[in-house]
Amino acid sequence: MERTADVTVGGAYKVAGEEESSVMGNVESSGYQRRASRVPPEERAQIEKSFDNLSRNPSKKCVGLTTFQDSLASSLPASMSQRIFHGMQSVDVSGAPAAPEVTREQHAVFIIELLRGTAEEKSALIAPMIGADNSGKVTGPRVQQFLEDLIGAAVHVLHQQNALSGWSLENTRDCDSGVRTLATQLMSQLQEPSGGPPLVSAELSSSFSRAAIEDWLYKVPMVSALLRVVVTLGFSVLRQSGDVGCLVPRCRRGKALSFVSLLDLPAIMYLNAHLPSEMQYKWRLLFSTRVHGESFSQLCGHVVDQGPSLLVLRDAGGFIFGGFAAQNWEVKPQFQGDSRCFLFTVSPHLDIFTYTGYNDHYMYLNHSQQTMPNGLGMGGQHDYFGLWIDSNFGKGHSKAKPRCTTYNSPQLSATEDFCIDAMEVWGLGELSEELQIKNKKSILDADPEAKALLEMMGRTRQSEGLRDKEDEET
Q1: Model confidence over 241-257: pLDDT tens digits?
Q2: Residues 299 and 425: beta-carbon distance below 8 Å
Q3: CB 452: neighbour CB atoms within 10 A?
Q4: Confidence class of residue 446 from pLDDT cuts 50, 70 and 90?
Q5: Could you tell me the CA-to-CA distances from 389 to 11, 241, 267, 315 in Å, in that order?
Q6: Which long-range CB contacts under 8 A does 221-229 form with residues at least 24 apart?
Q7: Are 157 and 149 in contact (CB under 8 A)?
């Protein structure tokens, strides 16, 4: 049957003269219709419009690489738009050999299967984007470069679309090194499903099959999340599928408008993806040595009764690391917290270390006790914490011989005993109603003389400064 002009039927494309699926030669039409049925008509209309924007002509049925990249020049880096083009070229809707241009149907199926498809369907699209050889295998260096392009494109499109939710390239750590570090971390989890060691360096020449890519996408959902953001924002289509809220939390810095975080955007994305879902949508700056000074009393005063939090430190050796406290901090001489807590490193390596089940020494915060250690700790045991900040603020340790018993973490800092160069703490999610009420009440509110006496002694109550009305989001 001779192929004639495409017509739209119910929001999907059919080939004229091939309206009955039982008619011989209707492979292309039925194959496309089956895939397109995953999205409702209004979403198919968005996909059609995005192709018209690419082709710059609603009557065109295909688009070449140059026009494709030129149309996306303001949205995506050229390296990523070229990879997406190759992914679209790989879509088979007719059984015909691959053509040098991308058709409307290939464009639509690519977007639908990348956003709504299975890991198997996604792997079929991502392998050519990585640069698979004729046998369908990919090498470690190509995976590393693909991930660097993908992460860089995600940051780029979020910045271009003003979708960084209060973060910016100016109030976070340099992004370039973070892109490489996150790419290495995501790639380290790639291995053949049949077993064998994971790939730990882009310099290795190991090859990986489509099955390995499929298994990797299933185990590392962040790769798909990054692709969704790049495609939905880059093509301005199905933006509700972009998962921006989970990838980048809303940032509330209060009055610290000039504050620059120790974290880079890729690290923020990675850490946020490992938090409980209810804590992924909003981060509130509670404490920073640059804003509040180097004081253990100030640290306690700004983290106690503020719910779950993320602690981030940089030591004098330049290492960046920290811990996730899954429960509210309380000052008491006992361990607290739960098994959701973890320790992490950001630089020079990005990694997370979770609960081992060995003991319940998740979190510890004590102050002004003579018989128990005074400071903030996570994991390990007294005097041998996985992460410890001494009440004599500015000093700490990370002791792991060879690993922290609670989190199986190695030494996080450059040296076992370290000096703090900078520290920040983020409150996660919304405060519970109980903590909101607790923060509004203090016996010192009814006793101004006691408050004045503490101030004369150079002491402040722990809740001081925490109950100001939150500023509007930047």
Answers
A1: 555 667 899 999 888 77
A2: yes
A3: 11
A4: very low
A5: 60, 41, 22, 11
A6: 221/273, 222/186, 222/269, 222/270, 222/273, 223/126, 223/147, 223/150, 223/186, 224/122, 225/273, 226/150, 226/151, 226/154, 226/269, 227/114, 227/122, 227/126, 227/150, 228/114, 228/115, 229/154, 229/157, 229/158
A7: no
